[in-house]
Fold:
Amino acid sequence: MSVLKRQHRQRGGRWPSRIAGFGVLLLLLAALGLAGAGPAYRLELLTLGAAFNVLRFGALLGLAAIAVALLALLVALLCRRRGVVWSALFTIAATIALLAIPWTYWQRAQSAPPIHDITTDMEDPPAFVALAPEREAAPNAVDYPGESFARRQREAYPDIQPRHFPLPLATVRAAAEAAVLDMGWEIADINIDAVDTIEATRRPRPGSASRMTWWYA
Structure:
């Protein structure tokens, strides 16, 4: 009887299934981190820096899930465990699909200059007024960083230039205000006294880097 039991016992025992299960667990944790970082930031449960750290940790967990799944696949092939083979293949495919979106965003980020401020007036950029307190609480500086940013902007976005319209100022201001509202931004202030400006802000989508503020002058 003991000989028959040993013959019917699955090769490798429980280890192939345990390794594959660990890979699935890592996949679930990676999905939680990658999918939850953005909503957690939008709900102000995490700071922007903490949300990016969660994204990085989720990506690392995804890579670990692929590595463990590959190990499980190798063990399953050696032990001829068909069910574990399919489980490992599923984990690998699902993890690659999960990492595809953040990988795409990362690739796009590599083609953009490392600047957080873009202006059409690099000599005398308009300053934050209504949104200055909010910017002071953010990691980036309130004031325009200077020539280093201006040089990078010229190299990356040479087409961003001031535009002049042969129209009354009130007409242009109304069109600019309508454009800001159409983009879903929240107007913080419209100043028509000293310098004609509109300050507006919008919470970024998951994956974007900071609040965005727009001026019309």
User: Anything to note?
Assistant: The longest strand covers residues 186-191.
